[in-house]
Amino acid sequence: MHPEQHDWARSLDGLHDQVWKRLARGVADRRAPGRHPTLATVDAQGMPQARTVVLRAADREAATLRVYTDRTADKVEEVRNTPWAAIHIWDNVAHLQMRLSATVTILTGEPVLPVWSQLSDHARRCYGFQPGSGAPLADGLDYDRWPDPGAFAILQLQLEQIEALHLGHHHRRARFRRDDQWGGQWLVP
Ligand SMILES: Cc1cc2nc3c(=O)[nH]c(=O)nc-3n(C[C@H](O)[C@H](O)[C@H](O)COP(=O)(O)O)c2cc1C
């Protein structure tokens, strides 16, 4: 018998472990596929909006993820109105698609200052656009950057559901739910 390349995919626990390993690697390694998830939100018209972000933290115990953003970004307004988000990652190394559903909390002001104080000057330049993110411009570079802790926001994602699709020699799909204490359920791929 041919040993399976990704042994972990054979059990629900193994799959669930692997999702958190890949998320942790995304936080730690800028070249890992988990570094750049797609974050999807819903806008005021009910339209889905998807964009690339950097994964900044992944806490398995709490089942939370963190993304940093500018307070004026549309995504912040979107989750203020509709506090749900989806995260999508295709990890081509693990042959693993991860689809995560979350409720979102926006952190600004005092609670984010300890994080702000750890950011490099270069990183701070991503927060504090003048005019605000998404404003129309007469020319592509007609904007300023004033690194500003008041413009810095952390999106805290409380994961509610994780869906994993492993495309190995066999295809396996499973769903894990927080309200089921992260118990897993196999699904038809
Ligand atoms: C590789 C990459 C990484 C990005 N990381 C972030 C990020 O961590 N936070 C963020 O707000 N935008 C990030 N962006 C920009 C977003 O994709 C998006 O263009 C911007 O945040 C405006 O989105 P919004 O108007 O939907 O809020 C990144 C873009 C790329 C291409």
Give an overview of the whole structure.
With 189 residues, the protein is an alpha+beta fold. 19% of the residues lie in helices and 38% in strands. It has helices at 12-28, 74-81, 113-118, 121-124; strands spanning 38-42, 48-52, 57-59, 64-70, 84-91, 96-107, 129-130, 144-145, 152-167, 171-177, 183-187. The strands form two sheets. Strands 1, 2, 3, 4, 5, 6, 9, 10 and 11 form a nine-stranded antiparallel sheet that branches. The model has no long low-confidence stretch (mean pLDDT 96). The protein binds flavin mononucleotide. Residues 36, 49, 51-54, 67-70, 73-75, 133-134 line the site of flavin mononucleotide.
Task: Considering the chains and any ligands shown, give keywords for the structure.
single chain; alpha+beta; 9-stranded antiparallel sheet; two-stranded antiparallel ribbon; 19% helix; binds flavin mononucleotide
Secondary structure category: alpha+beta
CATH architecture call: Roll
- Distance from N terminus to C terminus (CA atoms, Å) equals 24 Å
Q: Tell me the number of strands.
A: 11
Query: Total helix count?
Result: 4
Please state roughly what percent of the residues sit in beta strands, choosing from under 5%, 5-15%, 15-25%, 25-35%, 35-45% or over 45%: 35-45%
User: Share of helix among residues?
Assistant: 10-25%
Sketch the major β-sheet.
9 strands, antiparallel
Ligand species:
flavin mononucleotide
CATH class: Mainly Beta
